[in-house]
Please model this.
Amino acid sequence: MPKAKAAQTDSNAETVTMASLTHLLESHRTAISEDFKQTFSALETKLNGVITTVTEHAEKLEILESEECERAHRALALKPPPNQRPRPIIIHLLRFQVKDKIIRHARTMRGRLKFRDHSILVFEDYPPEVVEQRKEFKTVMSELYERGFKPALLYLARLYIKMESGGRKHFPTVAEAEAFIVSLPSRNT
Model:
């Protein structure tokens, strides 16, 4: 009889062990299943965000994907650290109309055109001589801004001012623009 009781006790121990193992495996399966569902859901959300972004930018990138872009490359500079803004990208377009369209669109998106939380700025790449000519107008333009005008530099380096009366004035040289400023009434009056 003691042998029978021992065998029965061993059988109960196996049953308890088997039941606890079954329960443990079931809880692990449930936890893994939940973890998989959460991970999959997070990946699906990220993928939907990427798809939305790509879809929104598809029309804007259509110009660059077409044969309008001859080449595009990064500026020759060291790769910036992760928290710094990325290197400039230089794009050579085949038609100036496409360049004008891109610049106009970038101006309307000023401050809202972003990539990885960095603002994207679009500038024309002028030859060094033109950059120097445009730099000469800097003080004249700041003086005009202070007086309430909204000057603009046209290509190459011509100053354009829209007057309050609706007229327009063009100044091909800095001297002519300075003469115009001198002819204006004083700021104090």
Q: What stands out?
A: The chain has a mean pLDDT of 80. Helices lie at 2-65, 96-108, 128-136, 138-146, 174-183.
